[in-house]
Amino acid sequence: MWQEIGECFTALSNTADCRVIVLSGQGKNFTGGIDIQSLVQLASEADDLPDVARKARFHSNFIKYAQDTITSLEVCVKPVLSVVHSACVGAGVDLITAADMRYCTEDAWFSVREVDVGLAADVGTLQRLPKVVGNTSIARELCFTGRKFTAQEAKEIGLVSKVFPDKDTAMNTVMDIAVNIASKSPIAVQTTKINLVYSQSRPNQDGLEHIRLLNAVMNQGEDLPKSAIAQATKGPPPEFDNV
Ligand SMILES: CC/C=C\C=C\CC(=O)SCCNC(=O)CCNC(=O)[C@H](O)C(C)(C)COP(=O)(O)OP(=O)(O)OC[C@H]1O[C@@H](n2cnc3c(N)ncnc32)[C@H](O)[C@@H]1OP(=O)(O)O
């Protein structure tokens, strides 16, 4: 699954007729996080190596691979909307915090469970959760304790944008949001995502410089006049070529 997630988001990022991605889970839970047996197996494979440097390199390589998998959501230029139902544990929080938007059902619950399996979270939660919720005290409490928190609390701290009564309602509403985004200029939407991601950990001046250079090129495209004229004339929504 690690491999498929990375391949999937890389492929969708490069698939012209995909404009928006909705990520949801099948079955009883959104995700129970990393397969614990595979984690134990990995530790034992590292243990079999003859010396500490090689053990360290083995761990480092897998962590990098897993980090890149989660980061593939962020690197993907198409907006990723995630919909969580029931449990979202450990790697699930890493995954959704790399998405652009998060929604959940009333029965959803979350846990930054890594400390309880003896790990410091290493595939994104520690970097992204504090920024997503904008409150380092609550982010740290959740990371240090691994405690379960409800959909309601996730909404209160800003982890999710909205809580829906059930999965069908959540999916229908989030699909409407996705359709709305997909109707807009893909150049404008994707450049917006690229700049938001670039700017999230940099000074404003760097982000401004980045968008200035991007738009010096992108503003020469056909989507800007098409959209601007439709807005100004209250004309029908324009159609845009895929990127
Ligand atoms: C480089 C490192 C990269 C990433 C690291 C990520 C770290 C993490 O993800 S830490 C989190 C690890 N996950 C957990 O600790 C979750 C433990 N499981 C649970 O809390 C619950 O099982 C549940 C996910 C909330 C689901 O509960 P429920 O719906 O009640 O089902 P269960 O009966 O408990 O489980 C069914 C069945 O699945 C097995 N299982 C559940 N989660 C895992 C898992 N993460 N790994 C392996 N197996 C799991 C559970 O043991 C049950 O198995 P049976 O054989 O049916 O007993």
How would you characterize this protein structure?
- The protein has 243 residues and is an alpha/beta fold.
- The protein has two domains: 2-181, Alpha-Beta Complex (2-enoyl-CoA Hydratase, Chain A, domain 1); 184-233, Orthogonal Bundle (Lyase 2-enoyl-coa Hydratase, Chain  A, domain 2), CATH 1.10.12.
- Helix content is 56%, strand content 10%.
- The strands form two sheets. It has a four-stranded parallel sheet with strand order 1-2-4-7, with helices on both faces. The protein has a three-stranded mixed sheet with strand order 3-5-6.
- Helix 4 crosses helix 5.
- The longest helix is centred in the N-terminal third of the chain and has 24 residues, at 52-75.
- Ligand LTDHYY67 is lined by residues 28-29, 32-37, 62-63, 66, 87, 89-91, 113-114, 117, 119, 122-123.
- It comes from Trichoplusia ni (Cabbage looper).
- One of its GO terms (cellular component) is mitochondrion.
- It is found in: Peroxisome.
- It catalyses: (3E,5Z,8Z,11Z,14Z)-eicosapentaenoyl-CoA = (2E,4E,8Z,11Z,14Z)-eicosapentaenoyl-CoA; (3E,5Z)-octadienoyl-CoA = (2E,4E)-octadienoyl-CoA.
- Keywords: Acetylation, Fatty acid metabolism, Isomerase, Lipid metabolism, Peroxisome.
Task: Provide mean pLDDT, rounded.
Answer: 97
Rounded Rg: 20 Å
Q: How much of the sequence is in beta strands?
A: 5-15%
- Return residue spans where pLDDT drops below 50 for at least 5 consecutive residues: none
Features:
56% helix, lipid metabolism, four-stranded parallel sheet, Lyase 2-enoyl-coa Hydratase, Chain  A, domain 2, binds ligand LTDHYY67, 2 domains, 2-enoyl-CoA Hydratase, Chain A, domain 1, 10% strand, ClpP/crotonase-like_dom_sf, 243 residues, three-stranded mixed sheet, Delta(3,5)-Delta(2,4)-dienoyl-CoA isomerase, mitochondrial, 11 helices, alpha/beta
